[in-house]
Design brief:
about 200 residues; alpha+beta; six-stranded mixed β-sheet
Amino acid sequence: MNKDVLKVISLLNMLVIILTTSGCKKESKVEPDPGTLKLNYVIGTYYSVNDIDIRRSKAALVWTIKFKKGVEYTLQSAPNVFLKYANQHGERGDKVIYLPRPAYTIPIGIMGINVLDALGHDRSKDFELSFMSIEEGIKSRQYGNGVRVQKPVSETSAGDLEWIEDETIMIRYVGKDPLPKGLKLVLKLEGGKEIVKPLT
């Protein structure tokens, strides 16, 4: 093997070593976007619901339901209660999270929603529930805006309702018959308490 070939092989070996060692260098730290907040918990406040306010749209058979807050639990005000709910929602607080908005505030203790007619018959299947949910974002660690969930009120579970973003949900009448009179919304809470409000 002549000297020129040996030189080429030596140069190639050196190049491989340089490329390999440079690839082992520690990656540069990715800086968060300006305007993001540095948090340990995506959900910053859990609150109980002590009442609801219902408003009907004049243009459509849609009602906006706003929860009125009772007791609020934060890491600062009630650490033991906060950490219990944080654990239930899959948050450990052991990682820094950059969120493009303030931490979420979500209700606790909502066990179900029903719509009853004047005779007490369940008409939940005739209504669709719509709300923003943060479940997918927290479970996938893809934080940002919530995802809109739409499903029949009759198929909504307590598990769905524990991920409601902030304090507003909507229901829409999807029944085939004319809207009945005397309808009532029943919000079932933990401990057997119910909040009952008229819809029509």
